[in-house]
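User: quick one - fold this with 2-acetamido-2-deoxy-beta-D-glucopyranose bound?
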Amino acid sequence: MNLPLAAVLAFTLISLCVAQGKKIPLSQGKRSDWKPPGAVRRPWTASLQQPWPLPIRPRQQLFPKQPRPFEKPVQPDKPLQAPKEDYGVTSLARDVKLTNYKDKVYHCQVEIGTPGQKFNMAIHTGYPASWIPSVHCPPEYTLSSHYYRRYNNASSSTYRANGKEFTALYEDGEVEGYWSQDTLKVAGLKVRNQSFGEAVLEPNMFKDMNIDGVLGLRPRAAFEGEELTVMDNMVRQKLLPAPVFSLYLNRFDSEDRDSVLTLGGTNTDYYTGEFVVAPLTRPNRWQFKIDGVQIANHSGVFSKSGCHAELDSGTPLILGPIEEVNIVHLQLGGIPLQGWPRTFLFDCAKVDSLPDLEFIVSGQKLSISSKDYIIKEYKDGEVSCYSAVEGMFWRKDETPVWVLGTAFMRAYYTLFDVGNKRIGFAKAKH
Ligand SMILES: *[C@@H]1O[C@H](CO)[C@@H](O)[C@H](O)[C@H]1NC(C)=O
Ligand SMILES: *[C@@H]1O[C@H](CO)[C@@H](O)[C@H](O)[C@H]1NC(C)=O
Ligand SMILES: *[C@@H]1O[C@H](CO)[C@@H](O)[C@H](O)[C@H]1NC(C)=O
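Assistant: Sure. Structure tokens for the protein plus 2-acetamido-2-deoxy-beta-D-glucopyranose:
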């Protein structure tokens, strides 16, 4: 089935117009039909041969009921310097082993409750809340996959009811439930009174990802409610030597070591060289300024005027403003996939010689090679090569940003400095 570009554009425009005038309904535990407008809209997932899963990046704020207030850019509270000097105490930081599920999602094992109930939780730097499936999820709303474990509050001695409604909207549906509190254990750290969503309704988009829930690692904005994030609690309960965490993400089909989330510091085993540091440009997102995106050894520089990028481990892709993404692929020689104009196809025989893609941050080039931005998909003995870089629609009231998912993060060891509101990049040691 090949949808002409015009139909795709028309659909998007219509849906944008319809969504513009609509109020977001207050869902009182009921399933609402409203879908977030714009953004990574992919209505044809089922019928087209799209090889790549939907990002688990939520398209909506955690509490969509209030408008997002104007957020002032954050000024760094001290001169920028290599974070290594501040937080080099790696002996006290904790490493959490991550499992890379086919380069689609990275998850770690977390225990919730006393005695602990184990869950595979996707690490998500684009989302503040953590959630897991509840034993109270009615059968008609469950995925009935046996590996989906469920939290049972009745068998935990440290459970505390909260009961406030929990909602998280994703591209392909919404997770609904209520907030609860319990002890959360990760890497031997015991976080008390941790709030998390107990999901009683989940979309089936998580079915092929081998995860039970999500561990939110984005700072929470004031309008997103009062529930403290896991990092908030770890810092308040003084479990970490420094209010930071960092990520090393391995490549699925290589001999790499395990992926690692380091809580409270950096781990020098996993990176080389100095950190390139950028202050956050929105206080509760891992968002920073980029001065340009370019292809190595090409003269064209995009976004010269400056743009912003967000680090989001919740998507395997690199998402950018559509026009810029199209120019990138024009220069690289990618061909739009028929019926799927935002996915670009490459000749597999040539992908190894494709030039690097460079993001300019704090005056330095952060470059990723085709090994990172080309996805190889094997099917029936044949291999197809797709670009991980895709165009993304934005709502009228949103400023387009680049979303750097795990295709980018595999190339760079990333430091998320909660205390100083900044982010650091060092070359990952594969
Ligand atoms: C567990 O949660 C259910 C549903 O919210 C509630 O009715 C029940 O009282 C809770 N169990 C305990 C032991 O608190
Ligand atoms: C957890 O909550 C209980 C009840 O509100 C309180 O007594 C206790 O001090 C809290 N523990 C921590 C570590 O915050
Ligand atoms: C790009 O230019 C640099 C130096 O100018 C050179 O070393 C490198 O091989 C070139 N890369 C490609 C892909 O042509």
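One thing worth noting: The chain has two domains: 96-239, 268-428.
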